[in-house]
Amino acid sequence: MAYPASQEGSSEQPDSKMIATSLGPDHQKEEWTIRHTRAIIGSFCGLFASFGWYSSTGLFQDYYQRNQLRDYSPSTISWISSMGFFLVYSGTCFFGPLSARFGATPVVVVGSMLQVGGLLGTAFSSKLYQFLVLQGFLSALGASAVFFATIQIFGQWFRRRQALLVGISASGTSVGGVVFPLMIQSLLPKVDFRWTMIYVVFVILFLLLVAIFCVRAPSTAPPAPQPPDNNGQSWLTVFKDYNLLLAIAGIAFLSGTFTLVVTFVVAVARLRGWNDQVNAIVCLNAASFLGRIIPGVIAEYIGRLNTMAIFSFLSTVLILGLWLPSSGVPASIAFSVTWGFASASVVSLGPAILFQLSRPQDGVRNLALLYCVQSIAALTASPTGGALLSIEDDGNPRYLQLLAGLLSAVGTILIVLVRWLRSGAVLWEAL
């Protein structure tokens, strides 16, 4: 594993004994234990309940446009999902230090209370401001705590096969993105919106209880001593590592693309004649299940940066070459499946790349910084896309699709640049 330079222009690497000491006794053991398995199960359930729920926001964008909030424009309604994604990511700036200080479990407990309370309030909402406060703010803040706490433990428990194991746990987001829309589709014709949300909350509560029981930080040893000019706790040292900054920017652009497409894929599919809005989001999330795991397997052989570059390039091609020029239901189905698979790598490989570029003691801090930057992309992408969708009277989505393609292309270029800076033109080196 490679670690970033501690100072600008320096290639000095952390001492191997220092790395081993900072990992703690549980982590230094190579054998697999029940605690490792429990960490993966807890992370899977936590991501299922938190980010998996927000992977279904495209369904709510379309539902609110046709029901409770039909008097508002798509751009205005999209603030519910964009604020939610913004807080899911930006909340890590707050929950990251708390998790580092108090451990993952208390953060998951607090997050579970906020998410469940916010969604219960959403069940009784009918006004725009109520959806913004309860679904877009309160429940999203809780999901942020659960999301970050269940992702960051991988930097503490695992060093080998990180990309694969993060991908397995991150597949919980895809399962949530399939289960929740199908559940809502089944319940809405039988009960009203209020009881549908209440039933959903019960499922989320069960998953969060499993996460609370399973998510534990490993036993840690005292932190290794750091040289005075290489203090890993200082946030300012991040800005001396250009590889890390470029990687964060690239992943943020790809995440903005992910947020934009997930939010509007249902609305665009409806414009193309695909009236079964639930299956549109289900196809995307079902394909992303394999897209979380398979890139992790490939990354074990060719490297995380190489894998991310390949899949992000493929995502860009699918947006500009399939989604933009196509029309009709078959093309919408093909895009949902293929792009859902190709784009999913940003959720699983993004954290794995950050762990690869970070020293062990800096992993939580750098991951929090990544999600803070991603929150800006999440906040701005969906409202901008909604405004672009409203430009033409017939609702032609081409400007929205061009924006998605541009964001994806920029993210791909930045990831390729990081890979080139680390090894030059040596294409066969696994990075």
TrEMBL record:
Top-level taxon of origin: Eukaryota
Keyword flag Membrane: yes
Keyword Transport: yes
Topology term for the membrane: Multi-pass membrane protein
Main location: membrane
Gene Ontology, cellular component aspect: membrane
GO MF annotations, alphabetized: transmembrane transporter activity
Transmembrane spans: 39-56, 76-95, 107-125, 131-151, 163-184, 196-215, 244-266, 278-298, 305-325, 331-355, 367-388, 400-421
Subcellular localization: Membrane
Keyword terms, alphabetized: Membrane, Transmembrane, Transmembrane helix, Transport
Domain Major facilitator superfamily (MFS) profile: 38-423
Residue ranges, annotated region (Disordered): 1-22
Protein family membership: Belongs to the major facilitator superfamily. Monocarboxylate porter (TC 2.A.1.13) family.
PANTHER family: MAJOR FACILITATOR SUPERFAMILY (MFS) PROFILE DOMAIN-CONTAINING PROTEIN-RELATED (PTHR11360:SF224), MONOCARBOXYLATE TRANSPORTER (PTHR11360)
UniProt name for this protein: Putative transporter MCH4
Taxonomic placement: Eukaryota, Fungi, Dikarya, Ascomycota, Pezizomycotina
